[in-house]
Amino acid sequence: MALQGSAFPEQSFMHAYAAWRVDTLGPFRRIAEIGGGFGGLCAYLAGGDRTYTIYDLPYTNLLQGYFLLRCGLPVSLSGERPERIQVLPWWMINDPAARFDLVINQDSIPEMSPATGRAYIDRIKEIAPAFYSVNQEASAMNLRADRQLRVPEIIRAAGGYTRRSRNLFWLRDGYVEEFYLCGTTD
């Protein structure tokens, strides 16, 4: 989609809505996102005094860093002096100092292997008191010849989460948005 000669990806509508939802859920000042796409959600949420960290694949980090810098935001990549927005490779989520008010995941945990998806769910509850998920639940076949993961099933198996809300994500068929408190159980 083009808007006054500039590209405006369809995902931007989803990011804008998710940003609005996050703002309605709490005053989160330190946010982490697992798998940040091109950085659109970060661009919507990174205002004011918020800090925002994206954990993703290194080659995707380059796209995210470029996009966010072009948005005029203070961004650092791995190995640089930390800025208010950090774009880091996925394995850095295991840094013992990682602490956030909220972790967000959109469009990626279902695509991971069961072990990787479970590792992220286990790590989220160690580093944040809240988790916001927008993911598909179709359980489609993936490249490994098994079914894609469903976030609620992984969370149920992991324990340590209390679901506070669950709604259809009205911008995409088959997607659900959920908000969890971490470190607690149903």
Question: What would a concise description of this structure say?
Answer:
The chain is α/β, with parallel strands linked by helices and 186 residues long.
Description:
This protein is α/β, with parallel strands linked by helices. Helices cover 30% and strands 27% of the residues. It contains five helices and ten strands. The protein has helices spanning 11-25, 40-45, 58-70, 114-127, 151-158; strands at residues 2-3, 6-7, 30-34, 51-56, 75-77, 85-89, 102-106, 130-136, 161-168, 175-182. α4 (114-127) packs across α5. The chain is globular, with a radius of gyration of 16 Å. The model has no long low-confidence stretch (mean pLDDT 91).
Features:
single chain; 186 residues; alpha/beta; globular
- The structural class is alpha/beta
Terminal CA distance reads 43 Å
Strand order of the largest sheet: 5-6-4-3-7-8-10-9
Low-pLDDT residue spans: none
Portion of residues in beta strands equals 25-35%
Record field, number of beta strands = 10
Radius of gyration, rounded?
16 Å
The biggest sheet amounts to: 8 strands, mixed
Please count the helical segments.
Answer: 5
As a percent range, the share of helical residues equals 25-40%
Shape call: globular
User: pLDDT average, as an integer?
Assistant: 91
User: Order of SSEs, N→C?
Assistant: EEHEHEHEEEHEHEE
